[in-house]
Amino acid sequence: MSRKYKFYDNKKVHFVSLATVGWVDLFTRRIYFEVITDSFSYCIKHKGLILNAWCIMTNHVHLIIRSEDKSLSGIMRDMKKFTSKELIKTIQEHPKESRKERLLRIFEQAGQENKNNSYYQLWQQHNHPIELSTNNMMNQRLDYLHMNPVKAGFVKRPQDWLFSSAKNYAGLQGLLNLELAL
């Protein structure tokens, strides 16, 4: 793995992206978004995650994160492992999921192709953390992260996307309480 894509200082703010294998559009039902936001809340409360900004799209998640005293690599590993299992279980049990067989087949095939997995693989292996060392970098990533749903045509204004921190940055109550980055 390249030195460029590792967490070296957990206290510094990092931009991280997670993507589903094959960029599968999984996050199309509220219940799937809630698995992710519940995991964020748990990691904030119990694992030392400081979440500065976030956005969940249909096939990927962007985060701006740091930690005072815990390993960001460990937090991300645990979050990906937990959300993978929980999302697979939710897909299997969701009575109205018309894509169930297709989704499970894709995640099973990805799991079989990767010796690090026992059965399914939902997330791509890499997080590609980028340390945000300047205010300019922070502003650029915040704008990029919050504008994702606008550029995708889902909403007209960033704060209208329920599954991001844009409401918090617009001075409104968002889904999660955050430590704002700026």
UniProtKB/TrEMBL annotation:
Protein name per UniProt: Transposase
Source organism: Fodinibius halophilus
GO molecular function: sequence-specific DNA binding; transposase activity
SUPFAM superfamilies linked: Transposase IS200-like
Lineage, highest ranks first: Bacteria, Pseudomonadati, Balneolota, Balneolia, Balneolales
Cleavable signal peptide: none
Ranges of residues in domain Transposase IS200-like: 9-148
Database matches in SMART domains: Y1_Tnp (SM01321)
InterPro entries: RAYT_transposase, Transposase_17, Transposase_17_sf
GO biological process: DNA transposition
